[in-house]
Specification:
The chain is an alpha+beta fold and 235 residues long. It has helices at 2-14, 24-39, 43-56, 65-84, 88-101, 114-121, 197-207; strands at residues 152-153, 156-159, 174-180, 186-193, 211-213, 215-217, 220-222, 224-230.
Length: 235
Amino acid sequence: MRTRRLALLALLVIATLPLPASAQSTTGSTFDEIDAALRDGSPLRALRLVRRTLDDLPETVSEDEQGAATLGRLVTLRAVAESMIDDTAAALWSWALAQDLDPSVRDLDLRRYGSSGNLLRDTEERPLAEDGDFADDESRRINNIFRADGEVVLPDRRRGREPRYRRSADPTPVILQVLIDRRGRPSNPRVVDAPSALRLFLAAQAVSEWRFQPARLNRDEVAIYYNIRVDFDTD
């Protein structure tokens, strides 16, 4: 009886958002498997399923609202799994990205996943900051690094590759805003401009692995919100 009830609940969740026709035969059953793994307390299995599915989607997912719904829900489930294994930074990155991919994921009932779901549900969506705004309390006496007096050094990428995109020889770039902390690590992603959810997803996946020389003000490292242009490798 319990198994049947869990299956019905999983189907209700899956029915809340449409799937693209190209992915209906495989992704629907995968959502079932991921949901079951999360509810059974197997986040590592859920992560493996999500990552395998996301690795396969860029070649087939549609660049429309249905494709955005599929990506948004998969990244939401990834966030839940990451939260379950206490990788809070990764979970919050995934959850912020999921909401930009498809805002309707905020309507999903994440309470079904216990405290991990509640952590995401209770996390407020960060509004877009002004490019260059300081992000830590110590520097809030100055509003924006571009208007600061003194010696200013902007963030500079030191490690990381452009995302690959093979559907077009000249894809439009994505503009992504992230918080670059004093260690040069990006977090809190928000989309500024993206031609599609797929390209946003690919850009954010790449940027999550980038590392920067952090911004500096008068030789002191500071954390700022920074708009990044992400171009694609089409070779």
